[in-house]
Amino acid sequence: MKTTLAFDVYGTLIDTQGVLTQLQAWVGDDANALSLSWRNKQLEYSFRRGLMQDYQPFSVCTRDALNYACSLHKVVLTHEQKEALLQSYLTLPAFDDVAVALDQLSRSELRLFAFSNGERSAVESLLSHAHIEQYFEGVVSCDDIKTFKPNPAVYKHLTNETHSLTNETWLVSSNPFDVLGAMSSGLKSAWVCRSEASIFDPWGQAPTETIADLLGLTALFDRQQ
């Protein structure tokens, strides 16, 4: 059976800091801090809702996190500005290395899937806008089972949807919580460490592989074939 690569979307394929240009136009020097708080709270809300079994779609977590970040930084945005920012989450840019790496990987004996907390329609919009949708066999959304990463159920959902063997499935993610979640469910993992400032959680468990960008995957799987 072919090896399956499941790519996290937000923060791995797609740059969530792509909202900065618009934020800078509206809030100036507060843009970077606001954007980081928005992203961190978005993830926290997904964790909390998953644990509480009080599911709301990832887009709702994103909206609520934006409202929180504005309150935290005492930034006033109009309703129209907030809606524009939320709409921008459907058209965020891919990282520069993504298209080249996916094109190379798609030419090998590998199966590629996008795997995300986001609703299927939102993920498909992102992939289409970034012109990378053609590289994936499909999208696996946690929304299908009404919970979020790193719930073990989502990794089981992944292998069920892709008809893949656990030990032949890799999770590719820049998010350490996602990598650890996948590994705890028996998957292999590639942590995309795009910055020297990034820290992997010190839980005594290392990723199967650590790469600086997605081009590192092509070298990794070239060695394995």
TrEMBL record:
Enzyme Commission no: 3.8.1.2
UniProt-listed InterPro entries: 2-HAD, HAD-like_sf, HAD-SF_hydro_IA, HAD_2, HAD_sf, PGP-like_dom2, S-2-haloacid_dehalogenase
Catalysed conversion reaction: an (S)-2-haloacid + H2O = a (2R)-2-hydroxycarboxylate + a halide anion + H(+)
Protein keywords: Hydrolase
Pfam family membership, one: HAD_2
Annotated function: Catalyzes the hydrolytic dehalogenation of small (S)-2-haloalkanoic acids to yield the corresponding (R)-2-hydroxyalkanoic acids.
NCBIfam families (alphabetical): HAD-SF-IA-v2, HAD_type_II
Family: Belongs to the HAD-like hydrolase superfamily. S-2-haloalkanoic acid dehalogenase family.
PANTHER family named among the record's database cross-references: HALOACID DEHALOGENASE, TYPE II (AFU_ORTHOLOGUE AFUA_2G07750)-RELATED, HYDROLASE, HALOACID DELAHOGENASE-RELATED
Protein name, UniProt field: (S)-2-haloacid dehalogenase
